Prior knowledge:
- The structure is a homodimer.
- Chain A has helices at residues 9-15, 20-26, 34-40, 46-58, 80-84, 86-113, and strands at residues 62-67, 73-78.
- In chain A, β1 and β2 (73-78) form a beta hairpin.
- Chain A has a two-stranded antiparallel sheet.
- Chain A is globular and about 60 Å long.
- In chain A, 53% of the residues lie in helices and 9% in strands.
- By secondary structure, chain A is mostly helical.
- At the A-B interface, α1, α2, α4 and α6 of A face α1, α2, α4 and α6 of B.
- Chain A binds a DNA duplex through residues 17-19, 33-35, 44-48, 50-51, 66, 69-74, 122.
- Chains A, B: Residues 108-127 are annotated as: Disordered.
- Chains A, B: It holds the Pfam family HxlR.
- Chains A, B: Residues 6-104 form the HTH hxlR-type domain.
Amino acid sequence: MFLADCQARLAFDLLANTWNAVVVWSLRHGPRRPGELRGQIGGISHKVLTETLRRLEFNGLVERHAYAEAPPRVEYALTGLGRSLLAPIETFGAWAFEHADEVLAAQDRWEEETIASPTPPRAERPS
Amino acid sequence: MFLADCQARLAFDLLANTWNAVVVWSLRHGPRRPGELRGQIGGISHKVLTETLRRLEFNGLVERHAYAEAPPRVEYALTGLGRSLLAPIETFGAWAFEHADEVLAAQDRWEEETIASPTPPRAERPS
DNA sequence: CGCGTCACGCACCGATCGGTGCCTAACGGA
DNA sequence: TCCGTTAGGCACCGATCGGTGCGTGACGCG
């Protein structure tokens, strides 16, 4: 599992992007319009949102429905496949809630122990 | 959950990298040396492996044990926090096994429907 | 003495990620 | 007529990701 060309790597490619899982999660309660998504999710640019939605559509996780109306209206909804991904995502979210403080504590510990650390491996910290 | 500055975003930063989850998973059965990891995992460069391990160490998921021996010997092991992440990772892996074919089918469908697609949103395909 | 092993650092590089800013198209309202 | 709204395309940009290649230090072996 997860070795070399294993299919399981595919799952991580689906979550490798910063926003994929967040967008999927934001669609869990039904169809949403891009504007709504941009509102619900904080700090995603409109370009990246559409790119993300295209990618999710390409992978069969969401469906795009465009209505030819006065102000253009578009809705994105999860497919069955997309909905099946909600459970794993929630598992992760639960883990994060339980252990976020431990991760933060570990990061702080690192900063203490190594005096003047040359290159803190990465921010990894919500701005 | 997953909104704006929510802590749950942290979980995805931990998996945002291509190799983080794979390396954690490769350590599930006990300590491993870098060489072993490079062997188990396919196609990871030595630079990226050490970077990944440093990052995991920084986040408190793995521990580094160096033995001052003749040919330098180093072992990396999961911490308790790291082990607690195995369950969510496995959940994902299970999802991938179940649905990988659906994702691939969706991708193929995309290629059929849109004749000469201008920009296939992304490879997202194991090479 | 030269070679191999092992962990790892560093310089360099191309590809991708994500962000900003500006553009269109189509309509309703003032 | 001009503005606002909505979706989204396009150009451009800096930061990061991941890869290659080379060097080092300490040892063991022939």
